[in-house]
Amino acid sequence: MSFLSNQPLRAFVACVLSAVVPVIGMPIESAAQDSSVETLAFRQAMLVAEDSRATDPVSLATLLTGIDSPNEEIQKIAVRALGRLERFDLSGRIARLLEAGQPAVRREAINALGQSLQRGGDLSAYVSMLLARLQEEKDPEVQGVVAETLGRLPYLDSQTLQRVELMLGSFVSSVDPAVRLGAVDGLEAIARLRGDQTPLADQTIAQLRVVLTTSGSDENALRTRRLALAAFNASGSVDVGTISAALDDSDAQMRRLATLALLDADDLPERQLLIEKALTDKSAMVRLDALVAYGKHGRLRGCNSLVDAVEDQNSHVSLRALDLLGEGCPTGPSPTSFVASIVGGLNTDGDWHRPVHALVALARLDQNRAAGLLPRFVEHPVWQVRMYGARAATQLGPASGVILAELADDPNANVRGAALRGLVALEGHAADDVLLQALASDDYGLLRTVANLLEGSPDRRTPTILLSTLARLTASARDTSRDARVAILQRLKELGSRRNAGVLRPYLEDPDLRVAATAAEALSDWTGQTVLARTSRLRTGTPPSLEAALGLIGAHVRMVNGAEFQLTLFPEEAPATVDRFSQLARKGYYNTLTFHRVVPNFVIQGGSPGANEFMGDGPYMRDELGLRPHVRGAVGISTRGRDTGDAQIFINLVDNPRLDHNFTVFAQVTAGMDTVDAILEGDAIDRIEIIER
Description:
Elements: H1 7-20, H2 28-33, H3 40-51, H4 57-67, H5 72-84, H6 91-95, H7 103-116, H8 124-136, H9 140-151, H10 158-171, H11 177-194, H12 202-212, H13 219-235, H14 240-246, H15 252-264, H16 271-279, H17 284-297, H18 304-310, H19 315-325, H20 336-343, H21 353-365, H22 367-378, H23 383-394, H24 401-407, H25 413-427, H26 432-438, H27 444-453, H28 462-475, H29 482-495, H30 501-504, H31 513-527, H32 546-550, E1 552-559, E2 564-569, H33 575-586, E3 595-599, E4 603-606, E5 634-637, E6 649-652, E7 665-671, H34 673-678, E8 685-692
Antiparallel strand pairs: 1-2, 1-8, 2-7, 3-4, 4-6, 5-6, 5-7
Helix pairs in contact: 1-4, 3-4, 3-5, 4-5, 5-7, 7-9, 8-9, 9-11, 10-11, 10-12, 11-13, 12-13, 13-15, 14-15, 15-16, 15-17, 16-17, 17-19, 18-19, 19-21, 20-21, 21-22, 21-23, 22-23, 23-24, 23-25, 24-25, 25-27, 27-29, 28-29, 29-31
């Protein structure tokens, strides 16, 4: 039975919504159907419903009313929201819009169906439906989305998977670029997600090989070639001819993917010559991965290439070369003196990145020499330098225990975490007393680290102190404490006992579903009986304002060093995220915060007051997954699982299809990508200016 045919429920929803959402100003169904309103008000009601994850009948009914609306814009937004719930039981309602009149609605419906099918259930009927749609669809953009969606479904049946693969392969040769892109995108997902279990068929490989020779410099053509080569890499089907041709491609990402193939390909006699070619590539992203390939396959030829790369004009290449030098050289002169000379270049006011990477490398090459240089690092005013000092000290063995104990009391939580990991590596449970003292911290990242390090602790005080810490964190009511609390509960499950059951039972109703579930696991383990979490509510912040979000079009980011880059915002697809990001930026939240996580050829991440993944602004915001891919320059929200976004953002440095449909994309770097590429660990944001229409 549809919502619209259920008269009592329809009347109830209309009545309730008129009361709780005064901005609507009219019954919900009128708002959904009145084209003169275009119903910003109803769109706001849908946004509020989605923001609550539609956990109550009224919110869900709001979204279901939206997909039945004659207003196509409302249909598009409503079906997108339903897909984001990732509920298999709603798949049938979503599937109705595969026949919608507007292509834009069909695209959103197909993508939403792909999301709703991710959590299990019988896929067979929906796979047949999508395959039929792929063949019958007249709009190429819609066809492309169908193909991409078919590639990412969680297949359990190998026969169905093969059927889908062969069908997608037949569309790889389509004359329409959108269809071709979607088909290759789908095949890349199949190869990446299932390659080890079900390698791509020879026929599919042959079809993808043709794609690699397809010309075109527009973004669709470039993405198609990249995805085809990525599918080759994932399936282990790359040959020397393919690699050699790709290394001559005009697109830097193609050349990088070819270099990644050199890292993993077996039995490749020409490998060394191709690596040497990649080491001299004009693009830093290519040279970076060429170093990794050389480190794995070229080391017997000596370390001259790595030493040369230390002087590369690109800092990321230079740092990667230093890291690799720490693995030593089986032939040729030792790099120890060279590395030590860079360590000795540390000062208090210059760039510290090369010296700290060199120190960690030197600690692996020559412990005595590194130990003599270590004091300058552990006493340095920059906390990142002291953190790397702790990492180096861990490599030096028992003699560094005193230094690590001192760093375990450092003012910075990240330094303390590195020192504690080192102490446990050297001393085991002899360090438990220091760990228990560290549980007084307010840093969630450090508390998570300590809880994990207390595995197997024989100290009888441990469960009591863990319970006290858990209670303190819970009382603070901060969503971002989740990972610390889960880690503590996991340790209590191991170290606690049935006598702690009474203290733990209230956590079965914790607002955080994962915390409640972990408490249930612990109680089940202690009592020998199945205990279930009883959480029925979802804590949400203030609902975002759609009207305010839709007026936001961009952001200007200025770094402390004066470098700048520009973002285009996507309020239509991610209004809640854009609203939250903009509010924080205007309040100055991001001012002076750093990019604490820098992974060259992957992402940079920043926006944490604690400069770690666990300290961010709460409450959590929901995911707004959509059609936008994680291409180079796409800006997303960092999460620790579904609907755990805080203020932390990340920027894709390359195309990252494995992130698609898993993280919100709310913006795109449209100017200053060279600035983004140059950002190093610890580089700070000066301010972010939001641009309105």
